[in-house]
Amino acid sequence: MASAVRPSVGAVTRLAAPLRQQPQLVVSKIQTAPLSTTATLLKRHKYLGARDNKDHNKKRGESALRRTGTRWRLSMSDEPLPKPVPKSELPAVETDPNHGLWEFFASRTTVAATPEEDAKHGRGWAVEELRHKSWDDLHKLWWVCVKERNRIATGNWERNKSKLGFGESEADRRDREVRITMRGIKHVLTERLYAWEDAVALAKNDPEIDLSGNGPAFTPTQYLEDEPVSAFEVAKTKTASPEATEAEAPAAAAAATPDPATITPAAKPQSEARV
Amino acid sequence: MQPTRALLGMRYRKLRLTTKDVNKGFYKGTGSGAMGRHTKYGGYVIEWDKVRTYVCPDLTNFKLTPFVTNNVRKTYGQYETKLGPKDPQTYLARWKSENGLD
């Protein structure tokens, strides 16, 4: 820029050459002056090695925030840019309505159960009630409890995340009852294991029981002595009249020590009413 | 030494127990067991017999819930022996009464 305004040194010498050849005969009487001297006077003094005031920033004025684009054309400048589809026009995401993860929610439409819904629960199972349940029932009930606790945890997480408000104490109380049930299941299973271990130790000294694995494990002595029958006859009576063998079982049960634990749960009053 | 502000006063007891709160040799862990072993080169080998598997039974048509209605009072077992449900004699007697098949 400076060179454009100021004539170069060479140009000055070229201008000066004809002046030297021609003697200055005509001297204009009218004093002439440039239109304005301000521009040249305001020009900064240029010294050797001075910094030029040329703008070296090729990207001056480009801004991603103001979306100015580049200062030069790009190869794809004429290409029409795709525009994002508004969310309302997007097709709905297809999900499996029977996906297992749905079980983490109390319902399909809400993320968390209301405190009123959470408060609707009974008490946890008592240990005595669980003692009459089979292994399969306890196993399934355990997983029902796990899923219930998952639902409660999902509700808690959503309540904290979305700041839904109250409901923590209701969820806690519900969770506590579920944990009481789970503790009862563990209690019963541990109890059964201990009883079984002790019974195995006891059976080793029982003359009626053979734990070697060869032949029947249990041979009731008192009935063999009362009525000795051959194996053929036993098989014959079993095939002929199943009532006869069924009649033996209650007799054997009556002969054993009548203990409340031996009574089948069907005989006991059913107290496992459900919510 | 200036202890951190959190350690001052009674608030210390409310902090989570870390390994630096107790003597050496204390292993806090996370309550989860190992699922493999470390190799001498720094790697880790997963042993699949250590990896936990969870067997969830089929719960269709299973009607029990974790809750029992409050209208039913808790029942308590009546046992003749002191050991109660843990009594091996009772266990054996019941096993025999059910013909000792299993």
Brief account:
Chain A: Residues 50-93, 234-275 are annotated as: Disordered. The complex is a heterodimer of chains A (275) and B (102). By secondary structure, chain A is mainly alpha-helical.
DSSP strand (E) fraction of chain B?
5-15%
What are the secondary-structure elements of chain A, in order, as H or E? HHHHEHHHHHH
Oligomer: heterodimer
Q: Going across the major beta sheet of chain B, what is the strand order?
A: 1-2
* Largest interface by Cβ-Cβ < 8 Å: A-B, 52 and 39 residues
Estimate the global geometry of chain A from the Cα principal axes.
Answer: elongated
Number of separate strands of chain A:
1
Distance between the termini of chain A: 92 Å
Kindly report the average pLDDT value of chain B.
86
Mean pLDDT of chain A: 76
What structural category arises from helix and sheet content of chain B? little secondary structure
How many beta-strand elements of chain B?
Answer: 3
Number of helices of chain A: 10
Helix content of chain B: under 10%
Largest sheet of chain B: 2 strands, antiparallel
Query: What string gives the helices and strands of chain B in order?
Result: EEEH
What would the principal axes of the Cα set say about the shape of chain B? extended
> Beta fraction of the residues of chain A?
under 5%
GO biological process, one term (chain B): translation
Organism (chain B): Podospora australis
Family (chain B): Belongs to the mitochondrion-specific ribosomal protein mL41 family.
Main location (chain B): mitochondrion
Describe this protein's structure:
Chain A: Belongs to the universal ribosomal protein uL29 family. Chain A is mostly helical and 275 residues long. Chain A has a domain at 100-203. Chain A has ten helices and one strand. Chain A has helices spanning 2-5, 9-21, 38-42, 115-119, 127-131, 135-162, 168-203, 221-226, 231-240, 242-255; one strand at 123-124. Chain B has 102 residues and is mostly loops. Chain B contains one helix and three strands. Chain B is extended, with a radius of gyration of 26 Å. The model of chain B has no long low-confidence stretch (mean pLDDT 86). Chains A and B meet through β1, α5, α6, α7 and α10 of A and β3 and α1 of B. β1 (123-124) of chain A pairs antiparallel with β3 of chain B.
